[in-house]
Amino acid sequence: THILADSQATKDDLTELYHAPPEKITVLYAGVDQSFQPVSDPRQLAEVRDRYGIGEAPFVLSVSTLQPRKNYRRLIEAFEIALGHTQFVLVLAGGKGWLHDEILYEVRRRNLEAKVLFPGFVPETDLKALYSAAEVMAYPSLYEGFGLPVVESMACGTPVLTSTAPCLPEIAGQAAIFADPYDVQAIADGLTQLTTDPELCADLVQKGLTRARMFNWDDSARKLLGLYRELAQQG
Question: Is the full-model pTM beyond 0.85?
Fold first, then answer.
């Protein structure tokens, strides 16, 4: 009867690939849980660093299942270019997905075992502190339907580097910096910007906190309820 899409980009894909009538599709954004807020308690931040073996090093964080779509092989190469000879480490938090061995191989091939950490799946109870402890959240995905980690990171006050692939510019708006996900040097340049320009980071943090408030479950639920009522009246 009707189709829900989690972004305009997804709606466009449904129209183009499945020839679904656009009037049959409603864009209904996901929300970010209100518990996702900046964590400033030094003890909490230290505990989450210790729990996942990060130590005191500054780190770039990415949160997602380990799979090719997340573009981790290019992110690892970009990290090596931009930050491989600094104190930074790269933390790839998430469970193992399909073809994850290729990602692990890329780390070994570049002798980055000490610089790229795989803490595995991180429960939501720890995610807020992990986002807050990170210097940068990098999410150069090749394709997304919504990209929830981008919004979660912004809600926690961490500057975001993401990709120009659908639908990430739609979700992040002006609150992130963007890189072509197929351009390793562009990703590396973005990492360099966010780890050397405190004024840029401070601006993105404020924009991100504002942007994240646009994505809340109350608004999504009200919109969904209204749609159900409209469809019921038609039926």
Answer: yes
